Structure formats: C-alpha cells, structure tokens
Amino acid sequence: MTDYTEEHAKSGIDAELPEIECWPNQFPGYQINITIPEYTSVCPKTGLPDFGSISLEYEPDQLCLELKSLKTYITAYRHVGIFYENAVNRILKDVVDTCKPKRAVVRGEFNVRGGMKSVIEARYPVKPGS
Description:
By secondary structure, the protein is of the alpha+beta class. It is built from 3 helices and 6 strands.
C-alpha cells in the first residue's frame, strides 16, 4: 500500500463542518434512532464519490440533537475527502462532543464499490479492551 500516504489517511478528520445544535432534554432513560440514507462523501485517494447510509443511535443525557442542524452537518460531507472509517468515527466524535450522550453508536453502511460492501460501527463509550 505504498501509494497511500499519511495525508490520505488523515484526510477529512479535521475538515471544517457546520455545527450540530442541541436542545434541552426533558425525559430520562430513552433511546433515539436516526437514519440518514443519503450520505455522500469523496474518496480521498481516487476523488470518486462514496454513497451510503448512516445510522445514529444514542441515549440522551441533558441534550438532544437538533435534526435540521444534523442534516446540514451530514450533507456537508459530500464535499469532504474522507475514508469510511474516518467518517464514522468523526461523526461519533462530533455527536459526543456536542450533546454528551450517555451512550451512542454510529453505523455506516456503504454501497458496494469494487465488488465489496463495507459496514463500519463506532461506539461511545469505548468498551475496555477495544
């Protein structure tokens, strides 16, 4: 893999993206599931578009994600060169940093490309030993 560089590997991790907004949660002990079936980004190596579906499951603590701002945030990825793995982990990091949930899972199911389908999942909190 000598033609993949550190620059490719880090691409998109620090890209400037719109802020995700929140609103005060009113109830304890429930789960929110959000599916975004039209995720797009750009492969940082080839420049070709990537397509997939992002699922977010979280248990809110004090704050809930505001959906319109989340949509704007996810839509901004269409111009970002980022690998699948980095995108899923970046989305999780940004969600956790924004609303500080009790727990969260981001799952990316990416369309078939080159004869392979990729499914990437990141969790918060990270389980010990993971």
